[in-house]
Amino acid sequence: MSFSLIVTILIFILISMRQWLPAWLRIWHIMSMGALAILIMGEISLKAAFLGIDWNVIAYLFGVFSIAAALYDSGISDRMCDYLNKRHPSIPFSLLFLMVFSGITAAVLTNDAAAVIGTPIALTLARLLKIRPTLLLIALCASVTIGSMLTPVGNPQNILIAAKGHITNPMSSFALWLIVPTLFSMVFAFFWLLYVQKKWGQECHQHVSLPQPNHGSTWPAYLSVCLLIGMILGDSLLISINPNYHLPIGIMALIACLPVYLFNPHRKTVFKEVDWATLTFFVAMFVVTGAVLASGDLQTWLGPKLHELDHPPLLTTISFWGSQLFSNVPLIEIYLQLLTKQELSTMMLLSATSTLAGNLFIISAASNVIVVQQTEKFNAKPFSFWEFALVLLPITVVSLLFSYLWIVYVMS
User: Fold this and answer.
1) Which of 70, 134, 345, 396 could form a disulfide with 260 if both were Cys (CB 3.0 to 4.6 A apart)?
2) Is 403 exposed, middle or buried (0-12, 13-18, 19+ CB in 10 A)?
3) Contact predicate 74/217, CB 8 Å
4) Total tally of structural domains belonging to the chain
5) Which residues span the domain enclosing 104?
6) What sign for the dihedral angle of Cα 240, 244, 249, 252?
7) What is the model's pTM?
8) Where does the Citrate transporter-like domain lie (predicted)?
9) What is the CA radius of gyration of the chain?
10) What does each C-alpha distance from 218 to 80, 98, 244, 256, 344 come to in angstroms?
11) pLDDT tens, 181-233?
């Protein structure tokens, strides 16, 4: 076992024990220390580490964080909650509203964008309902992950599959194959989380000190959202016509956030509110996963099974558990290169499995990490590692099993 793999396992253990560690130690600190240890031990060179960072994803996150900060600054969270407050919302209604809003946002704007936009809304709703925000934050993570499964732009791994999986019409293919598993998983998640809330009872209210929005110009933020949606959908349609024409999602996000920095009078505040800690986490994560992949451990394990990678049981096992250890995006990129047959059913199962894997642990999906980091940025206490895992374990098992049966036995 390579040193980089040992570090990866230690990172996983430390994050799982974080509730017993000093409060100042954040997830991005742990990942950064792991990346630094790998670089010091020479597991990967500085040049290889730099080239291993997916700067397209980093650019995309920066653009999305900028747009989300501008949306919050415009007061969108307050307006949504004021609208709900006039209707005296109950916990079930607020939960349903948050999950539907987050799921649709994830499907259209990708899961990371939905996580950034949804976190202050979940915290504001918790303050409105006078409950601890744990349930709403976990619901946000679950709905963002499930909703992102529906479209080829719902998450980075879907974008990779749509671009490199030889799918002729990604938008209609994803919708046809995955709309039933998505809706089933979302409905089950809602009723399960509602049951958990009733079992927990009325939680103690936790003070959440959200910064006051400036309520400045709203149109730059809304224009940025429209630009991002338009470019993502347009790029998806363009790929279906000619796969050679593709605009990287990072470039799209940078273009989309331009109105925020060109026309928003509070552009300095927006830039300051960008979640730099989460960006640091992802840079460090790419260094760690790059070192693990360079070590050849994963390729060695898969060696005897390379000709069976399209078999549903093996594909599901590798993509689900591999996503926990190596992160789903790097795993999918390698998996697509190793597959000898890229049939549509294989691509859809790969997408569903790697996406739903994000509901098992905090570090299983980037969107979960974003929710944690955003919550802590707002000086609120997020859920613990095991709290998240125990609540979402039934959702993970049921949604994964149903998706497998639907894709393998109904659609194939």
Assistant:
1) 70
2) buried
3) yes
4) 1
5) 3-411
6) negative
7) 0.78
8) 15-332
9) 20
10) 14, 22, 36, 15, 42
11) 999 999 999 999 999 988 876 555 555 666 666 656 688 888 998 898 888 77
